[in-house]
Specification:
single chain, about 325 residues, alpha/beta, Rossmann fold, nine-stranded mixed beta sheet, two-stranded antiparallel ribbon, about 30% helix, globular
């Protein structure tokens, strides 16, 4: 409740419109990161906000990146931001509505009924970036954020506020233990139409989270209330939103800017901990990612990362060094 009140108070202090000035406050990450909360019209759960986080490159740089996080996630990857800044990018991230910094007391964490609800969040932050002097912009999405960024890019063809798209293990097909892989889609969709708010277990393997967090087997520190090892229950409305979005990808997306799709070289489906979790995608089937990515109509490249985890920038250091070299080599050729 206190967090919700605080965010609503901050939201009152900043402008709710995309072309307005926003007021930044110190972010929870410190180290030069700032955040601003943006208010949107209420939805089926009530009040709605998103949060923009930024850290600017030294000097007057115009090249920028906007990062969109995945499911059961929020922006915490400081190293990624600093690598982009070192490369000469201003770094921006958005905590989407109902995630992380943007999660309010009246909301179910992570819930959404249609992925297009996130388009207002991305439009708003891109407009803020432009108003703050950003020139070429790289739109970057991980997992669910990669699916959202892809649909957004398709919807904004010819009206883009970005110049290239980077997809880190995009959520183009249901995760390995999704209910959509276990039950007929018609049953799920019928339940979603009648009772979108009802929930069921997400089915995500908690060992993936444990492979990341420093208090388990990993090396990263983040808020376990916002990114728990075991994702909270998902609603039938959310499942339908994912199904509808992935069907759009299967039908083909028209993206008018260069796209780089990165994914791990192999997947892992294990119920007991082992070091193998550090070298594979334990959430999605990487063959599905590569197959579905070929439905992009436009200029795209698909690359597998040897030894990569689901979030490639959280892989072991040698692997993520290769990931950044791949990203920046591609970006130098495609972002002018």
């Amino acid at each position: 409740m206190k967090k919700g009140i605080l965010l609503l108070f901050l939201a009152w202090l900043v402008a709710p419109y995309a072309n307005a000035q926003v007021t930044y406050f110190g972010d929870i990450l410190g180290n030069g990161f700032k955040q601003a909360t943006i208010v949107f019209p209420p939805d089926y759960e009530g009040s709605v906000t998103c949060t923009v986080v930024r850290k600017l490159a030294p000097g007057q740089k115009s090249k920028s990146v906007l990062y969109v996080h995945g499911f059961n996630d929020y922006f915490f990857q400081e190293e990624m931001a600093d690598r982009f800044i070192k490369e000469g990018y201003n770094f921006y991230a958005v905590d989407l509505r109902k995630y992380g910094r943007s999660w309010l007391a009246n909301q179910k964490l992570n819930d959404v009924r249609d992925l297009s609800e996130y388009f207002a969040d991305i439009d708003t932050v891109l407009n803020i970036m432009r108003s703050e002097g950003s020139g070429p912009i790289l739109l970057c999405g991980h997992s669910l954020g990669g699916l959202v960024a892809s649909l957004y890019a398709d919807a904004r063809t010819g009206k883009e506020l970005f110049d290239a798209v980077l997809l880190n293990s995009p959520y183009f097909d249901p995760e390995m233990h999704s209910v959509l892989k276990k039950k007929p889609a018609s049953l799920i969709l019928n339940r979603a139409e009648k009772h979108p708010e009802t929930t069921l277990n997400s089915g995500m393997n908690p060992l993936y989270g444990e492979s990341l967090h420093k208090d388990a087997f990993g090396e990263w520190n983040y808020n376990l209330s916002w990114k728990p090892h075991e994702a909270p229950p998902i609603s039938y409305g959310w499942i339908k939103a994912m199904y509808d979005a992935q069907q759009k990808v299967a039908a083909g997306l028209q993206i008018g800017k260069p796209v780089l799709v990165l994914h791990a070289a192999r997947s892992l489906d294990e119920k007991k901990w082992s070091e193998a979790f550090f070298t594979a995608d334990a959430v999605l089937n990487v063959s599905d990612i590569a197959r579905m990515a070929r439905n992009i109509q436009g200029q795209y490249s698909i690359q597998a990362v040897q030894g990569g985890m689901h979030d490639l920038v959280l892989s072991r250091k040698a692997v993520r060094d290769d990931v950044y070299e791949t990203i920046f080599s591609w970006a130098r050729r495609n972002i002018k």
